[in-house]
Write a structure and sequence with these properties.
The chain is of the alpha+beta class and 279 residues long. The protein has two domains: 1-46, no CATH class; 56-279, Alpha-Beta Plaits (2-Layer Sandwich), CATH 3.30.70.20. It has nine helices and ten strands. The termini are far apart. Mean pLDDT is 87; it is low at 24-46.
């Protein structure tokens, strides 16, 4: 057995073990000494090594994302670009990034909220995956409306990492929360723990997926796909370790907000142009 085959064999054995563990969890593992099993699983998985990307040192970066909601026009080009770039399931229910529409009608205190996953928007989009918002408010008396792009917040204290029983979800030293899908058992604990609804189960692989800020791009000096295609430049990305980076200036020069600050997750996606009803 050559070295490549040996590594593949070992990874398969670990994954098989973790799937057995997942079954124990599903059946109620207290009687099986679940805490001990989880400890063994994490030890078997080990800690994820730095990415094998030539010239990239993840200790020298502190990535962050900015969103100017005042600029978003709800065109959904970001969603399409993300699906293509990251091989996301081509339907209206699985997204790494998405956009929500907030509409305040005259006489109503709370907004009406929908996204591209709303049935009426799905119907308006047609069969080709050209996602769009419908015109249901065309004849309504609208007092205020805006769009809010959302994505994984790459939290400083990610709840998803805390609950993952196998170590598949981990926080990289540059701040991005990643998933080693070879260790994921599809238990979906992380999906339940995420307060932002940023994770989903990929039905093709039965493993969890989410936004990684296009990690394969940013570690090579490129921007995330959604940032590249945004026609109004409402998405800002960069390295907070660079004092002259656009994201550094965005955070410094604006009164930025994060979503659900009360959770203690400390997101690294910073917003301007949203109000108290956005969560």
């Amino acid at each position: 057995m050559n070295e490549e085959d040996r590594i593949a064999h070992e990874r398969k054995e670990r994954r098989d073990f973790l799937r057995i563990l997942g079954g124990a969890v599903a059946l109620g593992g207290a009687a099986l000494g679940l805490n001990s099993l989880i400890g063994e699983a994490v030890a078997a998985a080990g800690t994820s090594p730095p990415p094998a990307i030539p010239g990239y040192d993840w200790t020298k970066h502190r990535w962050a994302f900015g969103v100017d909601a005042d600029r978003c026009i709800g065109c959904l080009r970001c969603d399409v670009a993300c699906k293509i770039e990251n091989d996301v399931v081509r339907d209206a229910n699985h997204f790494r990034t998405w956009v929500e529409r907030y509409v305040y009608l005259e006489g109503e205190e709370k907004p009406r909220i929908d996204s591209q996953s709303d049935p009426q928007n799905i119907a308006a989009s047609g069969p080709d995956g050209d996602y769009r918002f419908d015109d249901r408010y065309r004849d309504a008396k609208v007092s205020k409306a805006f769009f809010v792009p959302k994505l994984c917040n790459q939290c400083e204290h990610p709840a998803c990492v805390e609950v993952c029983p196998t170590g598949a979800t981990f926080k990289a030293k540059d701040g991005v929360v990643l998933i080693d899908q070879s260790y994921c058992i599809g238990c979906q604990y992380c999906i339940q723990a995420c307060p932002y609804g940023a994770r989903y189960l990929d039905p093709r692989k039965n493993v969890v997926d989410k936004c990684t800020w296009c990690y394969h791009r940013i570690t090579k000096g490129l921007k995330p796909a959604c940032v590249e295609v945004c026609p109004t430049h409402c998405r800002i990305f960069g390295d907070l370790n660079d004092p002259d980076a656009e994201i550094t200036l965005f955070v410094r020069d604006n009164k930025v907000e994060v979503l659900k600050p009360e959770t203690g997750n400390a997101p690294h996606v910073y917003y301007i142009g949203i109000d108290k009803d956005v969560s």
